[in-house]
Specification:
Largest sheet: 9 strands, mixed
Distance between the termini: 65 Å
Mean pLDDT: 87
Shape: elongated
Low-confidence stretches: 1-35, 385-391
Number of domains: 2
Number of helices: 1
Structural class: mainly beta
Oligomer: single chain
Helix content: under 10%
Radius of gyration: 29 Å
Strand content: 35-45%
Number of strands: 26
Length: 391
C-alpha cells in the first residue's frame, strides 16, 4: 500500500449448634468476609489472585492453558476449580501474535492479556472460563461475577489510493477491537451481563467497540485508560464465562507488517476478573455441654470427629477435646473440637469417649443442632444415628 495509508502508533459467619444437655455440636454455616464485590448474606466475596492468572494463563505461543486449577483467590475459603479453553472462529495469522498470558497492568492490576492476529475481519476467538466444585467435580455456580476488559481501541491508518490492492477513498484500519461477554447457568442458558461502565466512545451494547469509524482511539499497552474499558456484572449465578474477541466487521483493514489488504494486524485486550461470590466451605464444631451435675467431679469427656471414609480421627492433635471442670460446668475452651472445615462430599461420625474413670451409663445423651442465631436445624438421636452428613 502506498504512503496515503499511514501507520498510527500501536497501540458472617452463621453457625449451627447441635446443643444438648449432654453434647453440643457447632456447625458453622458460612463465613462472610470483608467484601470486595457486594455479595448476598453469608457469601464470601473474592477475586482472582495473581497466581490464578499465572495458573490459568500461559507464556507459551500457542498458549498451553490451565485446566482444573484450584482458585487461590484472596480469601482462604475457595474450593472452586477453574479451566480455560480457546475456540477460534475463522483463522489466525500463522506468523502473528497468539498469546493468552498473565500480564500486570498499571497500578499492579493483574490481567489476562489476549494478544491475537486474525487473518480477516470475520475471524474471532473466544476464551472460556468454566468453574467446578473441587469436592464434587460438578459445576460450581458463582454469584455476582464481574469483570472488566481494558484496551478496547481502534487504530486508523488512512485512505486507500487504489494502489497495492487498496480501494481509492476507502478508510483502512489496522484493527478495531470488538468484545462480547456471555455467561452460562448450570442449566446451560446464556446470560447477558449488565454493563456497569464503558469508555465514553464505546458502544452501549454488545459487541463492545469504539464507535468511531473515521479515526483512532488508542490506549497505551498495559495501561488502565478508562477510554478503552468496559465493565460488566452478572445478576444470575453462572458456571461459565465466555469472552469473544475480534474486529468491527463494518470496517476495512490493512496489515502494515505484511502489506495485506483485508488482514487486520496484531491486536490485544486485557481481561480482569473484578470479583465474584460463593458460599464458603462448611464447618463443623463438636462441643460438650452438661445439663446436670457430674456423677463425680472427676468425670470428664472427650469428643471427636471421625472421617467415615477411613475411620480416621480428624480432630487428632487438638488438646481441647477433653473437658475440664466440675459439677455441670465445662470449662470454656475445653470439650470442643474447635472449628473444622468439612468436605461436603463426605460423611462424618461424632463420637464421645470417657476420660479416666467416667462411666457413660451414668449419663443420658442428647444431641441438638442449632445455628448461631439459636434456631434449631435438626435433632439427632445418638441411639439411631451416629453419622452426620452435610451436603
Amino acid at each position: 500500500m502506498n504512503s496515503s495509508v499511514e501507520l498510527s502508533a500501536l497501540k458472617s459467619r452463621v453457625t449451627r449448634w447441635i446443643a444438648l444437655p449432654s453434647l453440643l455440636i457447632l456447625l458453622p454455616n458460612y463465613l462472610a468476609l470483608a467484601a470486595i464485590t457486594t455479595c448476598p448474606a453469608n457469601f464470601v466475596s473474592d477475586e482472582f489472585a495473581s497466581t490464578d492468572y499465572s495458573n490459568l494463563g500461559s507464556t507459551a505461543s500457542p498458549p498451553i492453558l490451565g485446566v482444573n486449577q484450584l482458585l487461590n483467590g484472596l480469601r482462604s475459603e475457595s474450593y472452586t476449580i477453574a479451566s480455560n479453553s480457546l475456540v477460534t472462529t475463522g483463522s489466525l495469522d500463522a506468523g502473528g501474535s497468539n498469546f493468552y498470558r498473565p500480564k500486570t497492568l498499571a497500578g499492579n492490576l493483574q490481567s489476562f492479556e489476549f494478544f491475537q492476529d486474525f487473518t480477516n475481519k470475520g475471524s474471532s476467538r473466544a476464551v472460556s472460563y468454566t468453574f467446578k466444585n473441587s469436592f464434587t467435580n460438578e459445576s460450581q455456580a458463582l454469584t455476582n461475577v464481574s469483570l472488566s476488559i481494558y484496551d478496547i481501541d481502534v487504530n486508523y491508518l488512512g485512505t486507500g489510493t487504489g494502489n497495492g490492492g487498496t480501494t481509492a477513498g476507502t478508510r483502512y484500519f489496522e484493527f478495531s477491537d470488538q468484545v462480547t461477554i456471555t455467561g452460562f447457568t448450570s442449566a446451560g442458558a446464556s446470560v447477558t451481563p449488565t454493563l456497569t461502565y464503558r469508555g465514553t466512545g464505546i458502544t452501549t451494547t454488545a459487541p463492545y467497540r469504539q464507535t468511531t469509524t473515521t479515526g483512532s482511539v488508542l490506549c497505551s499497552t498495559d495501561s488502565v485508560d478508562e477510554r478503552c474499558k468496559v465493565s460488566v456484572a452478572f445478576n444470575q449465578p453462572i458456571v461459565r464465562v465466555d469472552v469473544s474477541y475480534g474486529n468491527n466487521p463494518n470496517l476495512e483493514y490493512y496489515d502494515n507488517t505484511t502489506g495485506t489488504v483485508g488482514n487486520p494486524g496484531d491486536q490485544l485486550i486485557n481481561i480482569v476478573f473484578d470479583g465474584y461470590c460463593y458460599l464458603p466451605q462448611p464447618r463443623l464444631t463438636y462441643t460438650k455441654a452438661l445439663s446436670s451435675s457430674r456423677k463425680t467431679n472427676t468425670d470428664q469427656f472427650t469428643v471427636q470427629i471421625k472421617d467415615n471414609a477411613d475411620n480416621s480421627v480428624v480432630t487428632n492433635g487438638i488438646s481441647s477435646v477433653t473437658t475440664s471442670g466440675s459439677g455441670n460446668t465445662v470449662t470454656t475452651g475445653t470439650g470442643t473440637t474447635g472449628t473444622f472445615k468439612v468436605n461436603p462430599a463426605k460423611t462424618y461420625t461424632l463420637t464421645e469417649a470417657v476420660s479416666g474413670t467416667t462411666n457413660l451409663v451414668d449419663y443420658t445423651a442428647l444431641y441438638a443442632c442449632r445455628r448461631s442465631d439459636g434456631t434449631t436445624v435438626t435433632t439427632l438421636d445418638p441411639k439411631k444415628s451416629k453419622a452426620y452428613v452435610r451436603r
